[in-house]
Amino acid sequence: MNQLNGFGANFRRFSAPPSGPVVTHRGTFTTSGSVNSITQTGVSIGAAAAGRLVVVTGHIVRAAAAQRTFSAVTFNGSGGTIHGQTGINDGVNEGVQVGIMSGVVATGTTVDIVVTWSGLLPAGLINVYTIDGLVSATPTETLTTTGNDPSVTTLDVAASGVVVGAFGGVEPSTGAFTLTGVTAVDDRQFGAGGTNMRAAAGHASGLSATSAYTVGCASSAGFEALVASSWA
Fold first, then answer.
1. Is 121 exposed, middle or buried (0-12, 13-18, 19+ CB in 10 A)?
2. Hey, where are the domains in the chain?
3. 12, 75, 176, 228 — which has fewest CB within 10 A?
């Protein structure tokens, strides 16, 4: 029994609600063969909520000295938005492209997602997130970069903001990415027919306001690409 102002009182302790939007990783989905899209039906996205944003990170690899680009995304048949994408190739026989895209899905507990890219390639994958409690479905900012162990250092983040990052690497070893600014929810080597990429996604939440947030990646790949978006 706990004493309160001299009177015996039983009371229950409650945890404070999360500060700011809530980010939930809903799964990783892959496709391979000779493909120009990925269709994933019935992805569980939790309870319906007004303004619920479904965010997709896309990762594709091509057996050529150039990369394909993402061309469209739909959620339950309605067009979504590709916020940013970028890619890199080794100049010989492999290129990767990564992107971040989203759409508001306020109703239902599942969603059908289709992501399309500009031509056939051996393999692709997506990571699916939901973000609840946003003030706006429009990102505060989206930045992209490529290189050897690249990073962005000037991402705008609002108070209690969230960040989602998409990462890809050409011809990696089996070693994992080292990510900066986000915590990985999926990190894998994936491909088909001898053409592989390193692909990872991560996020951070409950952040302080800044105009200089850093998101980066490092691996043994030597050629890497990243996209980072923030929301509040």
1. buried
2. 20-231
3. 12
